């Protein structure tokens, strides 16, 4: 006969017998019937014995949330814009024992779960789950989930924060913004010796009632609407890139962003005044600095430069957009180089190193 504790049973214990016997418990006593090994129909002995069992008492209550922060339904901090915080979170209750496994008791009839705090946030119970749900228009702040038991003296509380969006903020960074994480730009100028304007990229952040500002990577760009007050001269794409056309006159342009219930604006200026190369940072060749191939094979050139004001081109191929801004040259006839694009064409074998010279056409910078 083996007697153990079952914390999920109302009686608090279970009985297990071996060697061809049956046992039944009624919560206070155990009735045992023993059969011969070869015959399960004619008992050889039976009897009833009282068994005193002291179920192990839990030492701690753990309240577990799927998310510690939620947002009211349809708030801009949720799926309407920010898409980071859900409008509900599941609640689970776990009892820890000193000498035994933990037990989930969320749906146990003896577990009492209650909610207090922020207006508009409710506790929703079903046969399969318990959730804290924040309704549309709920107040920001904290709600407290409390857990107690009808058969135990221990209890616990834990808070869920209700987060709401306060404001949308915009900054404009040189494009692409990955090259300019700490640089902002409010005036877009034309590259020297071209008619092409600098590009900019809108970086959006959201301010929460917690006082924190969330990074742009969490904003759902499919729900962020961006418009330009001068769409014909200074259009902005759905992914937030501002690309002025090369004939755009000098003007101020307002960029408006809408996301959920939030709106923000940013003014940028178009200035035809040329911006010059401040430094050459690196020169690269497609495939590396050793030209391997046959006569007629071609290799692209890439340059990394910094313009006045911090605008950078990083490993940029010279396409039509930058045509005329740079000049390439090389003294070696075995590898001719296009002076406008830097495209190298292999003409013959050559077994020594040679230099490629890159100049900014409209100022004295060289690499």
The percentage helix is under 10%
Q: Termini separation (Å)?
A: 90 Å
Residue-averaged pLDDT, rounded?
84
Number of helices: 0
Strand content: over 45%
Main pleated-sheet profile: 5 strands, antiparallel
Q: From the alpha carbons, calculate the radius of gyration and give it in angstroms.
A: 36 Å
pLDDT < 50 runs, ≥5 residues:
1-21
Shape: elongated
The quaternary state of the protein chains shown equals single chain
Please write the string of helix (H) and strand (E) elements. Answer: EEEEEEEEEEEEEEEEEEEEEEEEEEEEEE
Number of strands: 30
Structural class: mainly beta
Fold topology:
Blueprint: E1 2-5, E2 13-16, E3 21-25, E4 29-34, E5 45-50, E6 58-65, E7 69-70, E8 88-97, E9 100-104, E10 111-117, E11 121-125, E12 130-134, E13 141-149, E14 156-162, E15 165-174, E16 187-191, E17 200-208, E18 213-214, E19 224-228, E20 241-242, E21 251-259, E22 262-275, E23 277-285, E24 298-299, E25 301-307, E26 312-317, E27 326-329, E28 335-337, E29 344-346, E30 357-360
Parallel strand pairs: 7-14, 16-22
Antiparallel strand pairs: 1-2, 3-4, 4-5, 6-8, 8-9, 8-12, 10-13, 11-12, 13-14, 15-17, 17-18, 17-20, 19-21, 21-22, 23-25, 24-29, 25-26, 27-30, 28-29
